[in-house]
Amino acid sequence: MSTITEVTKTGNQLNTSYDVSKVALGNNEFVTADYTSTSAIDIAEGTVFGRIHETGKIAILDKNASDGSAYPVGIFYNGIGGTKSVGATTTVSLTLINKGKVNAGKLFFASGTTISSVVGTKQLRDHLNDLGLVLETSTQLSALDNA
Q: How far apart are CA 43 and CA 86, in angstroms?
């Protein structure tokens, strides 16, 4: 999602910081899957999801879960950035990226989970790579000299 942050504002000067980075970077494939919320939630684009074995529905990845949702199946993508609001006990169909290049810096995990967290015998980055997701780091337009 593109964001504009006001850094400095004086009577004669306005300095802003732009973030034009995206989650999906190219050659992506998408799937849809059902998600049922347990409470009202805003899901950020880039949130990593796992799948609950018994129901086949997706859940926000939890590295400590024993229901199957500790293993990633895709990354939430809504095409416009930002968040998607889901009401309590509501089932919605979400679009997930399951292959292609993604911006590793735009991924969101549940509290206490990072891309380096170990699930089973591998880090989450390795599980995502196994799906066919290529994790890229993006620094374009992030420095004044663009280096």
A: 8
pLDDT of residue 43: 95
End-to-end, the C-alpha distance of the chain in Å comes to 22
> Which residues span the domain enclosing 26?
21-136
Angle at 68 (CA atoms; ends 64, 72), nearest 5 degrees:
85
Flag whether 128 is in a domain: yes
Selected residue with higher pLDDT from 112 and 147: 112
Give the total number of structural domains in the chain.
Answer: 1
| pTM score | 0.81
